[in-house]
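Module 6 notes. Inverse folding takes a fixed backbone as the condition and produces residue identities as the prediction. Think of it as a translation problem where the source language is geometry and the target language is the twenty amino acids. Below is one complete input and output pair. Work through it position by position during the lab.
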């Protein structure tokens, strides 16, 4: 390698940087739709709740944080209007967390961005390249010890 040649970036670093770039684009797009106050965990929580209401303790397990930490995330999301808490019909002591109208709007806007992003990748690089990229990412995700968690697979939807 000559002094003027740039080193080839490590693939793992490119995956990280690519993800960060994707998230920046997503957040920029979400801001244009009025969702400029999203927190780090909001997207994961909203995707889980888009499948139905959950108890805070269930969200804590999925996020791999303490129940107190999950309660703080939910309280913050509730204060910003993304979720609401309702009584659990099966347990008078518990409350369920569900998406509010604003939360449903945010998840719809995020899903629309995801679709546009994929269309753009296919337009720039071809559908075969997009499909190969998806296959590689799926393989990487499933290579984790024990494979991809069944609950996280629901985030694909």
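Target side of the pair, the amino acids:
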């Amino acid at each position: 390698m000559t002094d003027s040649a740039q080193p080839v970036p490590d693939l793992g670093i490119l995956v990280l940087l690519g993800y960060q770039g994707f998230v920046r684009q997503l957040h920029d797009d979400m801001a244009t739709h009025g969702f400029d106050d999203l927190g780090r965990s909001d997207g994961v929580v909203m995707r889980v709740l888009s499948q139905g209401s959950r108890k805070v303790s269930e969200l804590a397990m999925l996020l791999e944080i303490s129940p107190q930490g999950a309660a703080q995330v939910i309280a913050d999301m509730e204060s910003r209007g993304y979720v609401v808490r309702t009584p659990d019909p099966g347990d008078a002591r518990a409350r369920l967390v569900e998406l509010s109208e604003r939360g449903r709007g945010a998840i719809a806007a995020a899903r629309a961005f995801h679709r546009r992003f994929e269309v753009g990748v296919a337009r720039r690089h071809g559908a075969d390249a997009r499909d190969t990229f998806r296959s590689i990412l799926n393989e990487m995700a499933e290579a984790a010890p024990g494979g991809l968690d069944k609950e996280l697979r629901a985030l694909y939807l």
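Reference fact for the lab report: The helical segments are 11-32, 42-49, 56-63, 67-79, 101-125, 127-142, 150-153.
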